[in-house]
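To fix ideas, we quote verbatim a fold written out as tokens:
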Amino acid sequence: MTYTSSLPPGRVSRPSPWVVLPRPVPGARLRLFCFPFAGGGASIYTPWVQHLPPGVELVAVQLPGRENRLAEEPYAHLPPLVDRLVAELAPFMDRPFAFYGHSNGGLVAFELARALRRLGRRGPEHLFIGGRPAPQLVLDEPPLHTMPHDEFLDALRRYNGTPEEVLQNPEIMELIAPMLRADFSLGETYAYAPEPPLAIPVSAYAGALDAEVPTEQVEAWREQTNGPFVFRVFPGDHFFITSDRAQVLAQLAAELGRVLARLGPVYA
């Protein structure tokens, strides 16, 4: 299902396959764009609407190759995806917004923020990153997207984000494996290009039990901002947004409340 933008009359209001608005907020003062982790879709974020401050509209970004876009070709490289997102999300950037990206989604959100800056466009008021190593770090790890089938399944088990019944179902895995490999390729083929730090607040969230992304790799996002930096560690593993959802959303809501306070009573 796709939804229509809640933009005011006279603005773009066409349905977009790239966007899911679980609960439109007419006159929203702030939009929160949420970018999924590898293998994830917009549905992971739709329950968040119940926990956001009044005046915040959640925009769950739906990438090709999953859920209602399963038949579409997924992106395997970040630059063309970012270019497409710049165009596709533009109608929803008519007012202040923030980005939350988990794991792969954090990298997408970061590079999208930098692309908007290069274009002289309005950028996010705040960047939230979850469970993703800072982009400037050099990670010497074998690429998952090229692994043989059995090794690929074992790697997915270590991340603890794919149910075992899915991993053991050959028909389902045949259907979703191309999307999963493309998503991992997106992060594993990424080449960081140094640019000045962002001039916005950045918050980096980590999982204390994350065996794949150590907390110090997440804390290294500090180098990517000249603004305020918040680092928070939650009890869970790589998918702490599921296991520790109440804590994560309480933290996120508090920080979004501070963004709203900066913006004032109306959107600009």
Summary: Residues 219 and 231 are 6 Å apart (CA to CA). Confidence is low (pLDDT under 50) at residues 1-13. The chain has eight helices and seven strands.
